[in-house]
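Ex. 9. Protein: LacI family transcriptional regulator.
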Amino acid sequence: MTIRDVAELAQVSTATVSRALSGAKPVSPAVVDQVRRAADELGYAGNGIASALRRSRTDTVGMVVPSIANPFFTGLVEHVEHALQDAGRQLFLCSSRSDPELEAQRLRSLVARQVDGIIISPVHGSLSTTAVRRAADELPLVQVDRYVTGVDSDWVGVDDDAALELVMEHLADRGVRSAAFVSSQLTNSSTELRVAGFHRHAERLGIAVREEDVLLGEYSIEWGRQAAVTLLAAGPRPDAVVCADDLIALGMLQACAAAGVDVPRDLLVTGFDDIPFAALSHPPLTTVRQPQAEIAAEAVRLLSRVLGAQEAPPSRVALRPSLTVRSSTSR
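Predicted structure tokens for LacI family transcriptional regulator:
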């Protein structure tokens, strides 16, 4: 029997159940009675020790990201840490190393350490669901960038479809009539939305896409190099390559240079994230800029709202991206 079962029977959120049973936050007497009756009916006792400890705040927030080696997540963590500092809280950072099992361990550890809440970018769209749901049943939780469905939590990230709309319209304005897409495997929400956005806006703008020119691997420079070799060997070469993140795009630029393919004269290349290295590549990379500071601030605001006992349904906040145009698409 879990706190989620009590929440469903009482027809309230899991956060309300936690507050009603712990007495840590003001909840109306009627709701407290409703929750207690549901708990009694189900025989739910909860974790009394954990509830008692949670009545005293630790002023710490756990954060779990897929990789601290990826500059996008490094930047996001830094912005979250700054936002938490402004809110009077400290960050407890964990890397899941893109491993759902390790991610589950990290989440269990954060719950055991009695952090006040958790901010997480889930590794996998389905394999992460159970662990994220269990953590959300125990603590306030906000998902960022990526998300899993079926979890009672807030989410904030970039509008991936709007991002691909910016990219594809920019390429169409540059006279692009055919394009390839290089991404990671379709294992998380962001990747799935970017692939879908690429196809949708390519079709809308009349940009041709061959099935074999959609290459799925991983978010890494090495995969960008490998994908470039595959694309350049297959022929005919597309007018542009759209990359799902900047690491892939940087590998693409390196491999093109090694093969004597001039970017942007022979091929246009775009990235996604606008990491610091994007402006330093040769040529400098046109890329989608994610509003990291705004994402971090909104994630902390949503978490603080729950910690402050403000009743509200879970929010989904998709922030508008922008396109940073550099030499990799300038003809």
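Check your answer against this statement. The radius of gyration is 22 Å.
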